[in-house]
């Protein structure tokens, strides 16, 4: 049974069905009827006018967002363990033409205004030093921690007062919203977020993420950059249709709730083995090498997260029946 | 009835079915069982060891190929009307970090050794002038003309003697092979081609092209660059499965033959209105504005290709019944 | 006797003397008293507020200017034989992060509004096609032709109506002004020029050119980019002092007049051998290989400009006595 | 009296004299007789075949070196306070097309094999993570500490065993050699250094640094990149002549010894106020704000290095008479 990665899960049936419905002739690229609905549908969800682009990966979403918010000679403050710094092979530097990631610290890969100020306050003004242009936070973080609307707003305030723009890597934004049970607007533009990488693939999608601009004027140049990066797919209707299917009936939220619930079950079983509080669909566990081996021997697959730690990811399609055996195994260690 | 673009066609049923079969859990990125088969399956097709990467667009395939063949300070000889120069929004310059496209001439967007020499022979050696590193040709060309194996080999010979590498943009490679009825190997590595962008999307695919390296050593760095460009999809099995479905039973060739046959029907009807010989699935027609309007009034959709010319693209799914009305309408102009 | 390149000439004594005077301690980079005078001194010369940066090469001046005027995904219209296209090793692509040079035609490397429209009018709007952001013209051109203020203004008008910005590569701007005997303002900002690469090195300088922004707001980002490109010299006072020495008493204009006068002498001798009218310090001559050999046998050094043509460049330090022998030799061919 | 920056010092008379001698006509760019001598003269100095390029700034030297040693998708290990990371405005990212600087720790901005391993050992192999390609160390460091040949060799060994290449930022290489009284070869290629940015400007030069490749094959591509970055000066003889003047009679070493001696005097006076041992020409001092103000009131100029610290830089032209007043003032605090 797999708890290795939420990328390993299949796409959910509604997404597959949507692909079938979109498999008709229509205009190429993003000229089709599905792509045409994105702005309106996401504007409804976010209760404000947004501009939305489909892209096939979270890395593309993040990097196109950063390129819209940071000039080639600027810097982006992010956590040392942020996905854009740690796991994207230098893609941000590629897309931005060499902007510098300015690394901040904080437990659970979570930033605070104080942590950000520790990075930007010492930067002298002048042409010798890379000046910050933007801040990027991940919600839920790479360790599954969730920023509340108030926490985002505190960072948004700092960004505003320093003339910086704020990006949210929301590869697991759905899980954060599900955890908080708040309006998506509260967690984003009302808290000062300019651009959101809204992830769907880990949450039951197949190959489409949404890049959401709360400042719609930023979208025009990004549409050009999407083409220039080879990301304007010929049959974009298939990506748009996936996103729309996810919005229908709040499928994205139901899937995320399911995954979070599974993680909560594991957390309960794990007790004080937990490295971080469980607030989304990831569970970080203290286990000895021997304990990890025993779990694997029982057929559970997961990621070794450094020495003495394991990462268990729950997917949208794992219900209590799928989770229970692992919960029991953990409890029985 | 649409003859506007082969990108407007739906994906063919075998591809959709393959997506369904691939919709199970498997390792993320390209660690899955479908991606693992690509090298072997394409090596069979090409009768030599190749390394293959899936990518979601022809632009990504072309640009990753060029980046493997040309350093940032080098140049790539291509036709002035090549897709990489004329229709990719500067993506080659983005991926290669600013390599220069060196523009050659020739009717029908087709290059010859002579046309290439006209570009590269005058380039003085020295650091002031961008030196050519590679040649890129499109087969079939943007005007539907097909290079024969001998024509490719003549360019391949030139490339070899000048220390250049040869890329083939094969967005409609299938149509070229179908027209020539030759072995894919004859048209590529045996003729000196180093890297091929093998297109499937216009030919009944959904969102996967194959980047084929006949020098497999080039693939390792390209896999890194694919990730760095945000093109390493999380659930890559869906792309790999599409490509494999296309290879099964030579579906790619059957689809291309069907499209070519439709274009041949139109060509017959067009007679001396043809701007170029019809060798693949595109038909370029001389029509007055009035004639174009009359065709459109009958429900036919197509692309105005400059003043007095129309481009009609036939897709894999248009059989004789679908083509005949337009053929008759053209004959009746 | 050298007529090979105006880069081969020594620096003039006033420049050397200025270096000596600047050889005292002062603030590093561009914080010194000489650099501080540049804006005011060039503003006087151009009769408007300008912002000026010293840079060590014309290539750096051109490329920093283009980067200020054109985004990475935009295009710059220039002549096919413009220095930025033909002789700068792809530096514009490097500095701009891959902007595309859009090549126009015209005799003597000179552009007209018509020639520029022939390039930009066919560009469809949309994300697939690189849109023009700027125009770059060279005055005097690579063939020594001079744009009049009216000719520049016609291009400036076109630029303005199309939302493009206008760069002038003035590696030999001094020679153009000397030829026209006009105010520098007439030839630049009053005619619609946004940024000027004002060359001094070929005109008796040692290692400093001036990048002049007629829109001073463009300078701030360019100062950052200058540093980022390694062009912010530690002891910038030596560059600033050279430029100021050139402005003192219009040394730049006297030097250019001297060089132009020499070229005029050669032109007289050349008669109908001239390939282009001689309007600055370059003379392009029709000579057979045998004639060229005879000139060389007499000790004259020059550049073979393709088959049957020779380029003779006159420098600021070549007076009539230095020119006369070559003029006689040409007349005697 | 200035102790603010060694960049503030004038150029030494021998350099100025050399400029005068080079002020004759000669071939442009680096085709002149002075540039032609560089390889041989530096090969003598380093007792091995080297290839040498002049460049006008340390930033250009560092960045061209890194670009020769690290691909765009690779990483360069350096100290968090290295000049390339902290003071070059993102120039390394610009020149390398976005390579990532991988930041290591260590007192006095000095790296050890252990500190480097702490950065590179945790990097997993695979396309998701930027792999190290090179290491860059600064000798003397930004805090004036000197790596001994053995210390460099230990890092060189690590580099070799990991397949990395080693760059030395030698903005104050002369001061390091003067301190160690060792052969330049010992401190560089014999210890595993591939490329050295050999600084002369802070040491009495005007506007020329030497980029030294101990693997001469790396120079050819770098010559192209130098042009492409706008750093191939038209009258390169003036840069080459400066470098040659510096080598004549070991002027570089005499200047460095003079500056080091001045710093040693200050160090003696500073006693336990020293933040770091003084091994070159920089002195880092603990001073209160009040003490700093008192020094300034006596006419001494220096750099505030964070709260409670001052940086005093001694230049090549400051003899004991110039230093003594500050030494006395420090002693008298």
Describe the structure.
Chains A, B, C, D: Residues 3-288 form the Aromatic amino acid beta-eliminating lyase/threonine aldolase domain. Chains A, B, C, D: Keywords: Lyase, Pyridoxal phosphate. The structure is a homotetramer of 333-residue chains. Chain A is an alpha/beta fold. The first copy, chain A, folds into 2 domains: 12-251, Type I PLP-dependent aspartate aminotransferase-like (Major domain) (Aspartate Aminotransferase, domain 2); 252-331, Aspartate Aminotransferase, domain 1 (Alpha-Beta Complex), CATH 3.90.1150.10. Helix content of chain A is 41%, strand content 15%. Chain A contains 14 helices and 10 strands. A 7-stranded mixed sheet of chain A has the order 1-7-6-5-4-2-3, with helices on both faces. A 3-stranded antiparallel sheet of chain A has the order 8-10-9, with helices on one face. In chain A, strand 4 (131-138), helix 7 and strand 5 form a beta-alpha-beta unit. In chain A, helix 1 crosses helix 11 (237-247), helix 8 crosses helix 12 (251-270) and helix 12 runs parallel beside helix 14. The radius of gyration of chain A is 20 Å and the shape is globular. Chain A starts with 12 loop residues before the first helix and ends with a helix. The relative contact order of chain A is 0.17. The mean pLDDT of chain A is 97.
């Amino acid at each position: 049974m797999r708890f290795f990665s939420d990328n390993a899960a299949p796409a959910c049936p509604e997404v597959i069905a949507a692909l079938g419905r979109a498999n008709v002739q229509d205009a190429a690229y993003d000229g089709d009827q599905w792509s045409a609905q994105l702005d309106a549908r996401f504007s409804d969800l976010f209760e404000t006018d947004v501009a939305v682009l489909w892209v096939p990966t979270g890395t593309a979403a993040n990097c196109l967002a950063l390129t819209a918010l940071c000039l080639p000679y600027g810097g982006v403050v992010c956590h040392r363990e942020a996905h854009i710094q740690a796991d994207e092979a230098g893609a941000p530097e590629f897309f931005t033409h060499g902007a510098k990631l300015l690394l901040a610290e904080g437990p659970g890969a979570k930033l605070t205004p104080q942590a950000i100020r520790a990075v930007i306050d010492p930067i002298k003004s002048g042409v010798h030093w890379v000046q910050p242009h933007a801040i990027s936070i991940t919600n839920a973080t790479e360790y599954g921690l969730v920023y509340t609307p108030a926490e985002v707003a505190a960072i948004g305030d700092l960004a505003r007062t320093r003339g910086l723009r704020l990006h949210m890597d929301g590869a697991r934004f759905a899980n954060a919203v599900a955890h908080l049970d708040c309006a998506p607007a509260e967690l984003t533009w009302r808290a000062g977020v300019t651009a959101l990488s809204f992830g769907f693939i880990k949450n039951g999608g197949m190959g489409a993420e949404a890049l959401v601009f709360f400042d719609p004027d930023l979208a025009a140049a990004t549409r050009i950059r999407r083409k220039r990066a080879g990301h304007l797919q010929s049959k974009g209707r298939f990506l748009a249709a996936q996103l729309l299917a996810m919005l229908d009936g709040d499928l994205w939220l139901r899937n995320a709730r399911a995954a979070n619930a599974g993680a909560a079950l594991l957390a309960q079983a794990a007790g004080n083995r937990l490295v971080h509080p469980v607030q989304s669909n990831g569970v970080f566990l203290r286990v000895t090498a021997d304990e990890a081996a025993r779990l694997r021997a029982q057929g559970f697959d997961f990621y070794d997260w450094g020495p003495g730690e394991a990462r268990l990811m729950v997917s949208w399609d794992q219900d209590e029946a799928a989770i229970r055996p692992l919960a029991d195994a953990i409890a029985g260690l």
